[in-house]
Amino acid sequence: MGHQPTFIEKIAEKVGLIPTLRADESPLPSLTEPGKLQGFPPPEKWDDWEEYEATGWARKEKKKYSIVPTTCFNCESACGLLAYIDKTTGAVRKFEGNPYHPASRGRNCAKGPATINQITDPERILYPLKRTGERGEGKWERVSWDNVLDDIAGKIRKALQEKRHNEVAYHVGRPGHEGYMDRVLKSWGIDGHNSHTNVCSSGARFGYNLWHGYDRPSPDHANADFILLISAHLESGHYFNPHAQRIIEGMMAGAKLAVMDPRLSNTASMANYWMPSYPGSEAAVLLAMAKILIDENLYNRDFVENWVNWKEYLEHDHPGTSLTFENFITKLKEVYTEYTPEFAENESGVKAEMIINVSREIGKAGSRFATHNWRAAGSGNLGGWAVARCLHFLNVLTGSVGTVGGTSPSAWNKFKPNFFDNPPAQKFWNELHFPKEYPLAFFEMSFLLPHFLKEGRGKLDVYFTRVFNPVWTYPDGFSWIEALTDKSKIGMHIALTPTWNETAYYADYVLPMGHASERHDINSYETHSGVWIAFRQPVLREAARRNGKPFTFTYEVNPGEVWEEDEFWIELSWRIDPDGSLGIRDHFKSPYRKEEKITVDEYYQFILNILKA
Amino acid sequence: MQACPYDALYIDPDTHTAAKCNYCAHRVDIGLEPACVNVCPEHAIISGDMDDPNSEIAQLLAREQVTVRKPEKYTGPNVFYINGDSASLTPSETDRQDQYIWGSQNKGVGHYARFLEKTTDRKTFEDMVNELSPSSREMSFPPINPKRSVEVLMEKAKAKRVYDTPDKGILWGWEVAGYVLTKAISSGVILLLVMADLLGVKGVTQEVEYTTVFISLFFLLLTGILLVKDLDQPKRFLYVLLRPHWNSWLVRGGYSITFFGLFVSVWLFGLYFNIESVVLVARWLSVLAGLMVAVYTAFLFAQAKGRDFWQSPMLVLHMLVHSLMAGSAFFVLIGLVVAFSPSMNGFILLILKISTVVNVILIGIELSVPHATHDSKSVVEMILKGNYSKLFWIGAMLLGNIIPVLILFVNPQWAFTSALFVLSGIYVTEKIWIEAPQRISLT
Questions:
Q1: CA-CA distance, A468 to B8, in Å (whole number)?
Q2: Span A165-179, mean pLDDT?
Q3: How far is B308 from chain A (nearest CA, A)?
Q4: B244 touching A (Cβ < 8 Å)
């Protein structure tokens, strides 16, 4: 085996004309017998792992790593990652999947391993920056964390002392944690949470919430017989990696897939039925499907009779009718008379024949019918909430709610942590977030914030933005620029961000926060049938612990002075209440060491200890 | 890179050497699966031991209908596709687009690697933005007709290419066409001189012999320079000679050129020191090596299995005839400086006439015989009617062959113009023969 050099080659190597290719004198041991391969290094070798360099394989170059697990933060799914920390340089060299993560199972999309590009980005922000020129002028100076924390804490303290609680707000895009910030904001006693949800998933959430009070679906694609998706899941939709794995798993076991999407997405190209409906017409198709299920007796009578409030419906909408299930079905058929497949075809462009075929497949699948809508048709359309609502009606009719291969409410497959301390609910109502004229608002009316400020409905004295870039992502970025540059409307804007963005450009402080591998979080999402939790951790902190290197805060091991938010909020809260008179400190005291400030280790120790019990 | 029928090789932009997937040898060596297998969310890529009946891959192969790509190339492919869709496996089944919605990078590998960085380095940020903006790329979309769009999408049966690997461009460019010409001159003058001597043509003087040998060595040197220049890593030329794979015609050709140069130099040495036996032996060895130098490129091209058009058995004759044409044409040019005897002159013009006429016949046969594969048919189409038709009909045929022959018959006094036309004609023909097949996408 191997390369047998010719006479010419041997001479040339000896003379030094070409480099010598020698056989590896001390080859690395193989994990497996010849012909058998495994996916990942075994955990018992994670602390001390050696492998060949990809590009230096011909020269048998070796590299020693310490492998530390964490989770990805480039979408909500929080798939597992293994950070490979180079033992020579002490820096993270690459990321691979974590085979023990229950949702991603070692397989990742390109965004996971690409975390290395974020942490080595030469343009990233490494030190806290304070504005020196006017807002948006782009002039900055490096400042110390101590000064930053004191300055912001002082301002918040003053606002709280003067009962200006509604002038402190935290505006977040992707939270990435379970309840951490809600606890912090409650401890300050403010109604300070704002989100981006109203320009994103709130349409679908509202539709689901109307059904069962849970605002997300949790489909069991892997065990389904029929899957109906209204979005582009495979490689582009919500939870797409864990979902894509299970959709294909289901299909390999014989499930059929229907996709309603005007785009020929990757998902649509894999589907048995592609229904390219005109945008905004999805609900019409779903109602026609419901009609077929009802008319052709394809619904699950047991489920509908037991779980749908049909008696209240008859009493309210058809008073005088005797309360029998048969009467309910008769009335339902009357209501649905107009939603024929032909009507749906005319609305959507999807052929009536295909609508009929898909409906019958759904009826056949019965309780093994998995559906999902998140953004796609559910967002960006007036009445988009009706899409998720009509879609879930098909699950209700087929009795595929909470079944194997069906679609469960989100919370059934999601873990909620218990905290060491639960502050009381806030006593303020911030009308900049939930204005009274929008009583049905599902999530904060965040896109109106700059307009409310301009109207003079209020002001913000301290405004945090995090994973949130409205100047770029909101429909009217220029309104945000107007609000952000007006110091009478926003007293202090603090952008918490690992990298520059258009909104941070208009901040007073730009504070660098860690990427996926530089921060703590607990993650749990309803990616499939099953409850799981994952632990995101700053991998260099763990490497330092393994090496016995002393540290107090994560920023000491992170690049530059990059903090993690968990520690930032503990530290800030502690400084807002230096004498304890505001009662805030009480919520940040260690459950293990009396009267002392909690550490981030203790925070997670408490959650995970309860879990063990 | 030309040898791979799957276009799987590329020039690594960091090392500037050819690279390809090595089945993650660095991982497999220590018992880990290849990275692509490991990372694929949908478990769409399965690798393993096909000889182990219990392995997942062996069971899938036993159970599923599988296809491979281009089995007719005898590469013994071990990549199997379950439900392989021919439209996504065979490039000729779909049309190449200029722009793709999700992948508008159309130059990015091989010689074009870092194309963007290279071009933007010299420019301002604004220039880069302008260059990348869709409007500057003259994108054109068909008018949108919302009532019909769904029907069009649903009913159009023909597969459409929506994503593509970036075009590697022409990997063998003017250097290769140029080197075919220089080596044709270098070997051609030697072959012609020895032929003249054998046939008893009067006037093969020592002066003529010296001139011939010098010219041969000069063009052989040019050949070497062009060959090395064509490599992305010029130093790797040493690998061809010093880490030889004897099956490769690149190696055989490299050694042919080296030995040809050696024999002609010995010949020169013999001439200078007037050692007749050395001259005699060196001359014959030079002829043998010269023949190899003249024709080996045909075998080299035939080893480029990816290029169907180069598989023609006519290529050997084509190369030999080009060598005689180049040799005789160059002798005509020497005649402007060195006075040849009338019989030598006549011999040179005769060979030039005959080889050029034979060349026209050969090209005619090469392009008119039925071609078996889609790819070579496309190349013939490109030459006769497509992108290369003007260059072929005017540059190669008319100026490179027909006019020079006419001149030779009408007015031999103008033979030197004829020679110039013939030499440029060879270059143009080789340029077409080398470039056109590279325009066919293999993947």
A1: 42
A2: 95
A3: 31
A4: yes
